[in-house]
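Entry 12.
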Amino acid sequence: MFRCCFKIFKKPRNNPNSQETNQAPTSVPIDVDALLKTFDGDRVFVEGLICSSCSNELPTSYDSLKSHWECREYVKVSEVAHLLKGMAGNLECHRLQAASGDLEEYARDFQNCRKPKVVLEKIELVLSEITSIMDFAKSEAIWSGT
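Predicted 3D structure (tokens):
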């Protein structure tokens, strides 16, 4: 089990002079402000949600995608992508959510599976986003085993 203390909660996240938008900043893979708003400002819960996802679900999904791709199990790739899409939505990870949705559709569509290069490109994008989220969480947090 991991415990983390996020520095991001101590930094101002919004420019008070800018208008609020519903879109996450493109440079940040997790919209922490939106998560805090969704969970009524409960920083402890949000921290636990991100920590749990980055230490459990995301690495497992990453490995599953790679494994199912190598075995050409397109239905399984689509199922993992579907799970990632939902998880990404819950975590306010908009880029991962969009990439996972695309991968889900392409892997599910048999015609696209006859063009594995297209599916591979989608998988690479999803894997890249997962890595980006985990790197972001590590850079913004102090991780220590408990």
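Annotation: The chain has one domain: 2-6+30-140. Confidence is low (pLDDT under 50) at residues 1-25, 142-146.
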